[in-house]
């Protein structure tokens, strides 16, 4: 009974934060948001590990690096200055908002997953399998405003391609990290998922509602929706982030390694003050149709397997310090159970560095 109550508490906390989007007053952008669509490029690296909270299980480590070009203005009807969107199809959809600029992004990342006890050398059919994936991604990111209310909006479309299995080098990466930290080597990686290609199409849209002046002390709320279709993960997602601080940046918040989009771009040349800090809380819920890292290989038979939870929630708490050219942040993430036989929820730490120019 206690385990069920704990699980329900996680889900209730996530839903409570998301309900804020329906009950909070709808502050509009107005003069509270810098409408400059000429932000520069940026480079971001995110590192996540459960060792930050003295555990070593399930989603145990992830790293993601991304580069985003500077803004290119969309002049009219989806046509940009260099006709990029014209060449890639004027039918690019922009439901409910007017895109003003776009960027191209590139990312590379690796994630690894293990059972609860990595000291067991034999197969563990009642626990999640060892798994890793290595990927490269292409992103199209657009910013604009809603047609009603002129609320700042951002959408990100990405295509991720990579490999699941021994070719992901997850085994070697974890053994290397354990060696550096003086930990025992994990013993069961020879039971990991088999090699198979991995591809995922992802989409995410954000809206930004700011409740204070553009500068000094203010707060905002950033709801989002999205989905992922592919053999690594097929799921629908909804979430939201509340930020509170000094000189909030004109962006859409930081992301995690497994987020559906990459972090927004660089500094705005018209922004009066770039230095600031803020704390934030966020929640996300996913309705999951397929998760290879729980269900096993999609294209090849996998021994064992556990029953996945159809709904998984994340709760995030963190802090960020930002300047014109540099941003640093750290957070803790509490994730609800991902499969039926899981004995307790997971918690891991996330740190990131963003360079802007």
Structure description:
- With 357 residues, this protein is mostly beta strands.
- It has helices at residues 2-23, 84-87, 170-181, 292-295; strands at residues 42-49, 58-68, 72-76, 79-80, 97-114, 131-146, 152-164, 196-207, 209-210, 217-230, 233-246, 276-291, 311-322, 326-335, 346-356.
- A hairpin with a 3-residue loop joins strand 13 and strand 14 (326-335).
- The longest helix is centred in the first third of the chain and has 22 residues, at 2-23.
- The radius of gyration is 21 Å and the shape is globular.
Query: Overall 3D geometry?
Result: globular
Element order: H for helix, E for strand: HEEEEHEEEHEEEEEHEEE
CATH architecture descriptor text: Beta Barrel
The major β-sheet equals: 12 strands, antiparallel, barrel
Strand count: 15
Features:
Lipocalin, 12-stranded antiparallel barrel, 4 helices, 15 strands, globular
In short:
The chain is built from four helices and 15 strands. It has 357 residues and is mainly beta.
Task: Explain the layout of strands and helices.
Blueprint: H1 2-23, E1 42-49, E2 58-68, E3 72-76, E4 79-80, H2 84-87, E5 97-114, E6 131-146, E7 152-164, H3 170-181, E8 196-207, E9 209-210, E10 217-230, E11 233-246, E12 276-291, H4 292-295, E13 311-322, E14 326-335, E15 346-356
Antiparallel strand pairs: 1-2, 1-15, 2-5, 3-4, 3-5, 5-6, 6-7, 7-8, 8-10, 9-10, 10-11, 11-12, 12-13, 13-14, 14-15
């Amino acid at each position: 009974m206690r385990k069920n109550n704990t699980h329900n508490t996680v889900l209730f906390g996530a839903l409570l934060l998301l309900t804020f989007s329906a009950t909070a007053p709808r502050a509009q952008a107005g003069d509270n948001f810098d409408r400059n669509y000429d932000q520069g490029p940026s480079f971001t690296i995110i590192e996540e590990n459960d060792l930050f909270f003295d555990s070593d299980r399930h989603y145990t480590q992830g790293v993601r690096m991304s580069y985003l070009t500077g803004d290119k203005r969309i002049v009219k009807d989806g046509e940009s200055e260099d006709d990029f969107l014209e060449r890639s199809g004027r039918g690019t959809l922009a439901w409910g908002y007017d895109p003003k600029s776009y960027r191209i992004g590139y990312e590379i990342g690796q994630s690894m997953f293990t059972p609860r006890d990595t000291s067991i050398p034999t197969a563990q059919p009642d626990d999640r399998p060892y798994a890793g994936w290595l990927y490269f991604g292409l992103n199209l990111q657009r910013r604009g405003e809603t047609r009603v209310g002129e609320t700042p909006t951002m959408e990100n479309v990405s295509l991720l391609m990579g490999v699941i299995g021994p070719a992901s080098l997850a085994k070697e990466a974890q053994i290397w990290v354990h060696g550096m930290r003086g930990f025992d080597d994990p013993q069961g990686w020879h039971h990991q998922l088999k090699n198979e290609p991995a591809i995922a199409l992802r989409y995410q849209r954000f809206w930004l509602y700011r409740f204070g002046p553009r500068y000094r002390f203010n707060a905002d709320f950033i709801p989002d929706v999205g989905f992922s279709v592919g053999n690594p993960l097929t799921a629908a997602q909804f979430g939201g982030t509340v930020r509170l601080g000094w000189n909030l940046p004109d962006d859409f918040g930081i992301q995690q390694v497994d987020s559906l989009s990459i972090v927004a771009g660089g500094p705005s040349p018209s922004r009066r003050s770039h230095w600031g800090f803020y704390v934030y809380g966020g929640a996300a819920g996913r309705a999951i149709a397929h998760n290879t890292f729980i269900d096993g290989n999609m294209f090849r038979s996998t021994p064992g397997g556990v029953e996945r939870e159809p709904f998984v929630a994340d709760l995030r708490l963190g802090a960020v310090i930002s300047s014109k050219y540099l941003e640093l942040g750290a957070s803790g993430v509490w994730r609800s159970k991902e499969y039926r036989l899981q004995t307790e929820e997971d918690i891991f730490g996330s740190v990131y560095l963003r360079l802007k120019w």
